[in-house]
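Lab notebook page, bench 4
Experiment: in silico fold of construct C2
Operator: M.H.
Input chain length: 127 residues
Purpose: comparison with the prior construct
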Amino acid sequence: MAARSKSAKGSGAAIQRIKPGVRFSTAVVHGDLVHVAGQVASDTKGGITGQTKSVLKALDAALKAAGTSKSKLLSCTVYLSDMRQFAAYNAVWDAWVDKANMPTRATVETRLAMPDYLIEIVAVAAR
């Protein structure tokens, strides 16, 4: 469910909030930019490969709900709980990403919100 907000006075562009929740929206559209909140795996039992597939599926769904797709990704920030998982995550990423429209990307090792989460991806896309 998308919620629309009026534009701030003088900004000229409406803000659209995709699936707003208690603490954050899944995505926020402002002008031609889509900001996607951190996506995590819906099932944490699949190891880094399964979690990465789940996160990318969630990212695809968030982009679609905002009227865009992975071909219009501008940048992704990837948070891994353990950098030793980098190669396995990259294998899934490489199979998923639109090679004709590669976004910028940064990958960071950090502790995630839940101990079972191995990966989280935040993205910005054009619409």
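Observations: Strands lie at 2-5, 15-20, 25-30, 33-40, 73-80, 104-109, 119-126. The mean pLDDT is 93.
Next step: discuss at group meeting.
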